[in-house]
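step=predict obj=Nuclease SbcCD subunit D n=399
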Amino acid sequence: MRFLHTSDWHLGRSFHRVNLLSAQREFIDHLVATVRERQVDAVLVAGDVYDRAVPPLAAVELFDDALHHLADLGVPTVMISGNHDSARRLGVGAGLIERAGIHLRTDPAGCATPVVLADDHGDIALYGLPYLEPALVRETLGAQAAGHPAVLRAAMDRVRADLATRPPGTRSVVLAHAFVTGGAPSDSERDITVGGVDSVPAEIFDGVDYAALGHLHGSQAITERIRYSGSPLAYSFSEARHRKSMWLVDLGPGGALAAERVDCPVPRPLARIRGRIDALLSDPDLDRYEDAWVEATLTDPARPHEPMPRLARRFPHLLSLVFDPERAPEDPLASYAQRLRGRTDRQIAEDFVAHVRGGRGPDEAERAVLGAALDAVRASQSEPAENAAPAETAGEARG
């Protein structure tokens, strides 16, 4: 059986205030054409269909068009909710939509109820595990501890228990939305750290033939059988070197597996350039970036006069301007930026406590309070109030 594995559409998202709706529509057309031309048997969408819990109307209309096109092809689609989606909203009408071959899996309680397909070699059970926010689903799944590893392990235990009741030789596919250890992140994934931990070990997916993952925006293989499709479009300049694609996966008898990358359309290439402004304006090696979306980092010791319009004359699609002035190694501002680079919200908060106390950091009880507060904020963001104002979706906002 041939699957097309995709994820992280983020419909409704912009890129540094550039509207990406036409590019997202082009991707949907490309996906539908790939399903038709490559004789795909089922489509797997591993979460983050929308960019936010309350998507704009244009994004909802595009999603509706995508479902109609897939249903018209008569190809089953299995789709889970991600940490950006409102599971309740995405799952509305799931029972009715299922009659058209679109299987929405947004309820954690149903993670062990598979969509069962069949080919010449027998049954294939497809299990959809929506994004599992530990604070919200621990009790539902009967997890033994808090955190992502515990709730995902509890969900996979249910999957394996159901699979054990299936006829011998039944193959299995799991869709999940999580950060698996060994994956390479980018700047555009929303932080899902809980209790200081954001990742889960790959061993959690032991016992299944293929794990179709979503959340990380770079296409990558954790193992031969555990893969991220990545997002179809770049949503931050940290993805400038990504090759945007989908996985075309053939699952044969006995779980034999082959995977091929299918490239996605690129609306405009991305480029990150760095240096003093005079060099950026004159370097002939930068000619190739003049038609790209550009992020320019200026290293001039003093901020140049009107840098944005000057650079935009050469790079008309300049979207982001960053200042990182060259400083002496002993400069306190330089060392402060280095201390913050790569640190989590929790580490920064603990460092702040130590700073205001003259070097004495939080004790274990205080660390627990800080961790619980950060976890509560993330949990509240995962399912916002019905009347909450829509969140900013500019490309520079991390999501």
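step=describe
Residues 384-399 have pLDDT under 50 and may be disordered.
step=end
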